[in-house]
Each structure stands twice: as C-alpha cells, then as structure tokens.
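thread: overnight batch results

M.L. [08:02]
morning all. the overnight job finished for the chain we discussed friday. pasting input first so we're all looking at the same thing
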Amino acid sequence: MPAPIDPSTLPCSPLNEVCGITYFARMIAKIRLHAQGKLWEDLIANLGIANDATCCGFLHVSHADLTARVLQGGTDEEIFEWCQEHGRRLNDTDKHVWNNFYKKMAWNDELTPRLASRKAESGLAHRDDIVTMPHYIDVDEGRLP
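M.L. [08:03]
and the structure it wrote out:
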C-alpha cells in the first residue's frame, strides 16, 4: 500500500478560482511548490504540460514566462493580471467558457480514455461516479472521498 500523500506537497483543488477562473490557482501553486522542492513527485512529470499547457494556451502566455513571473513573487491575483497584460484579457464570456470546459474535462471527450487509465493506476477504476478530471484529481489527492 502506498504511503499517504503529504498534504504540504499538494497544490489546491483544480476547481479553486482566481479572478473568476478555475485551475489557475492550482497551476500557480504547483510552480511555487516545485520551486521550493516540495511538489508531490507524481505531479512533477506534468508540470508545464497537460492541464498547465491548456490553461497557458487559453491565456496566451507560455508556461516558462508564467513560471518566471511566479518566481518573482506576488499574489495569485497579481500574477493573473500579469497574464492579462502579457497574453490576452479575458472577459466574462471567456471565463464562463473556460470554467465550463475545465469542469467537464474528460467527460465524454478525447480525454475520457486518459481518465480511465488514471483511475485504474490509482485503484479507482470501480468509481463510476468519477467522470471528470477535476473530480478525479480531488479524489486522488484526498480532498474528496
């Protein structure tokens, strides 16, 4: 049986919002934890790719530039504003589209097989209630039963 995950090595839930957008707070937390040498090892392989890359692409900023900005310091809100200035400014419709896309990620889309694989790797294949990637992440990291 694997050792329990140290909560201090985990970023926040992918559903936490900063300035009205989901996932951004998690991505920033992952960058900070990695820089401190504290990021949960299982998350390091996907740093800057997968959901991080999708979010950065939506914001029109590179993950490398975002990482450099995060390491300069500041609040999540200040860093989000930097993204708005160096990428593209999101309006309420953009935020609505992103949030609805992200909250349903892997539910009957091209990522559904990846979700099934991740559930199997985590011993959660029997959990038919886990149908989105954000829900899987919260269960896998112990925030939800």
